[in-house]
TrEMBL record:
InterPro entries reported for this sequence: CHP02241, Phage_T4_Gp19
A Pfam family reported for this protein in Swiss-Prot or TrEMBL: Phage_T4_gp19
NCBIfam families reported for this sequence: conserved hypothetical phage tail region protein
Organism: Portibacter lacus
The protein, known as: Phage tail protein
Any GO MF annotation of the entry: structural molecule activity
């Protein structure tokens, strides 16, 4: 690493949920992993199983943001009444893009999420004795993530 370089901070990011950019406070679940397979033939001279890569497992993506008066972007994406045929028929799930930005606003790293379907919306809790912002969260299951370094 060159002495004049500094790692990109994680607080400047952009989220496109297919219908345009939405400002979120937090994105979690950008992980995926390969399951592994073990196999050993009965006449193998070694008493050790062979390891191979199996299917890729993906987690649930969660997006959190503050609730704003009159803003319905997250609810419009989730609302099963409006999108029942779209999501349940598997004809047109969403493709999402999460971009990590540098100081100049240029995407340094992008997560392209394929086949995302909203499965849960949470509007947090309400407390009369707490001085906090109201937060909403939407969760997606998906068919994989492609990571791109720009």
């Amino acid at each position: 690493m060159a002495a004049d370089k500094f790692p990109v901070p994680k607080f400047h990011f952009n989220v496109d949920l297919g219908s345009g950019n939405i400002s979120f406070q937090e994105v979690t679940g950008l992980d995926q992993e390969f399951e592994h397979l073990e196999y050993r033939s009965g006449d193998d001279a070694e008493y050790v199983t062979q390891k191979r890569i199996g299917l890729k497992k993906t987690g649930t993506l969660s997006f959190k943001k503050g609730i704003f008066s009159g803003e319905t972007d997250v609810l419009d994406i989730y609302e099963p009444g409006n999108n029942k045929e779209k999501y349940y028929s598997n004809q047109d799930p969403l493709d999402l893009v999460i971009s990590l930005m540098d100081e100049a606003g240029t995407a340094v790293l992008e997560w392209a999420v394929r086949g995302a379907v909203p499965v849960k919306i949470t509007n947090g809790d309400l407390k009369s004795d707490e001085n906090a912002i109201a937060i909403e969260q939407i969760d997606f299951v998906h068919s994989g993530i492609t990571l791109t370094h720009n």
